[in-house]
């Protein structure tokens, strides 16, 4: 399989607190790959580092260590021109709140301006209208119903579709969808997921689907990456991870979803300071919540091993010795 994106031992440490005295390893030694036309879901509860990974891939943040490769090239080796014209044309993103991407004082059509200015400069004005209409139709919108409107005149689902149309206008190799359907109602959510699947099938677009919702991840993905407090605990083919969950955390998540058609939400909110302390644990960060935790779990992060083909876990339960 041709690889579009590779994360190699990526770590991002934020320093916070007075005089930068406190460190949060928001992303800790994370490695995974995205193949051409693959849909990969990053799943984890709040604070697991999903959004930070999205920002690192979009080069909005620089890794503290590790490398991110796009089609074999380190994204930090790109100069400004290559970043704008090549990388951002190939890697597009859609975020959670569609309303935040529109200026309420401007007609929605304005969101297409930047794309034409940066990536489609040679397109003539007449052709431009045609391209916009076609891309709106491809996401199931009637251009006559949305063009010329202000954001408040449209629904969240329509606005999110416009943003997806804009992202797909440049035919990216990779789309990052960060909680992109969380704010939409259930049926619109499924329509948009189906749409991403269609684009994958038609154009070979790879998707990184970031979500805290296990059921959505299961619905859409080829590959699943389960994260806990900055680290990958389990990853592999979606069928294998869901059919044979290995990590106690993955099992706990699945047990809290009695019915995969029902939206899952994590309810166990701990006090913030406690949450932060978890990042200081030298070993497995899930250890304080794990029924099987033993001494070594607190001492050193468990190695990741492949248990069956395309199914990996980082847990001492599976390590000998
Ligand atoms: N700029 C920052 N400065 C300091 N800490 C940060 C910063 N950005 C994120 N963090 C911390 O990094 C950790 C991971 O955050 P991140 O937003 O990536 O998680 P997430 O899985 O996307 O959660 P959510 O679903 O709530 O967005 C959290 O503890 C968060 O507080």
Keywords:
321 residues; alpha/beta; Rossmann fold; 34% helix; binds adenosine-5'-triphosphate
The DSSP helix count reads 12
Q: Distance N terminus to C terminus?
A: 35 Å
Examine the coordinates and then state which fold CATH places here, giving the name of the CATH topology: Rossmann fold
Please state how the strands of the largest beta sheet are arranged side by side.
Answer: 6-7-8-3-9-10-12-11
- Multimerization state: single chain
Average pLDDT works out at 88
Tell me how many strands there are: 12
- Overall outline: globular
Instruction: State the fourth-level CATH superfamily.
Output: P-loop containing nucleotide triphosphate hydrolases
Number of domains: 1
Please tell me how large the radius of gyration is. Answer: 21 Å
Strand content: 15-25%
Low-confidence stretches: 266-273
Protein name: 321aa long hypothetical oligopeptide transport ATP-binding protein AppF
Organism: Pyrococcus horikoshii (strain ATCC 700860 / DSM 12428 / JCM 9974 / NBRC 100139 / OT-3)
GO molecular function: ATP binding; ATP hydrolysis activity
Keywords: ATP-binding, Nucleotide-binding, Transport
Task: Describe this structure as you would to a colleague.
The protein has helices at 50-57, 80-90, 113-118, 125-138, 143-146, 156-169, 186-203, 214-220, 238-243, 248-255, 272-278, 295-299; strands spanning 3-16, 22-35, 39-43, 65-70, 73-74, 91-94, 174-178, 206-211, 223-228, 231-237, 304-308, 311-314. By secondary structure, the protein is an alpha/beta fold. It has one domain (3-318): Rossmann fold (3-Layer(aba) Sandwich). The strands form 2 sheets. It has an 8-stranded mixed beta sheet with strand order 6-7-8-3-9-10-12-11, sandwiched between helices. Strand 11 (304-308) and strand 12 form a beta hairpin. Helix 4 (125-138) packs across helix 6. The chain is globular and about 70 Å long. It starts with a strand and ends in a 7-residue tail after the last strand. Bound molecules: adenosine-5'-triphosphate. Adenosine-5'-triphosphate (ATP) binds at residues 14, 16, 24, 26, 44, 46-52, 212. InterPro entries: AAA+_ATPase (IPR003593), ABC_transporter-like_ATP-bd (IPR003439), ABC_transporter-like_CS (IPR017871), Oligopep_ABC_C (IPR013563), P-loop_NTPase (IPR027417). It comes from Pyrococcus horikoshii (strain ATCC 700860 / DSM 12428 / JCM 9974 / NBRC 100139 / OT-3).
